[in-house]
Amino acid sequence: MVASQYGHVDIVKYLMENGIDIFCRNKNGLNALMLAAKNGNLNVVKFLVKNGLMVDEVDNNGWDAILYASKNGHIEVVSFFATHKQYMKNPKYNYTNALGIAFKNNYQEITEYLIQYCNKININGEIGKSVFLYAVENAHITTIEYLINRGIHINTHNNKNETALIIAAKNGQLSILKYLIENKASIHRKDY
Length: 192
What we know:
The chain is mainly alpha-helical. It has helices spanning 2-5, 9-17, 32-38, 42-50, 65-71, 75-82, 85-88, 96-104, 108-118, 131-137, 141-149, 164-170, 174-182. The chain contains 13 helices and no strands. This is Ankyrin. It comes from Neocallimastix californiae.
């Protein structure tokens, strides 16, 4: 697994040819593919997938390889996974978590790539908050503008029934509040 983590594909190949178990996991449940993705080692990622590691396996915390690549800003690895047939065949995989992680870690390029690729910008993540609402909450105007221009439902709400406008008002974000109203956010919706 160390060779995968550090991007030594030739060593990974050699060890595999000599009987190493590429399917083993560390104490946290990470496998060689997750470690390679976490560190942006695309050649190792491709080799491991070609040799049978499943891209949608998860560790002890429920994280898969694309989440690790998103968290650490590895656009090439994210792109490989996003277009890989194992993800494309899985109708339940919606990239929302990878998208949210990329946004929260300020990886604009990955955020925009996943928005364009998955075309599901209005879907909420596991905690009931879309990337749009994350952007409003964190006053990330570039992402707010980008999402509005891509057709986000501006009146979407989180699991507390708070819209972007309510979040902006609650956080004292006057410039974002004005921008949302200028872009047709409803001022009549209630947060209950």
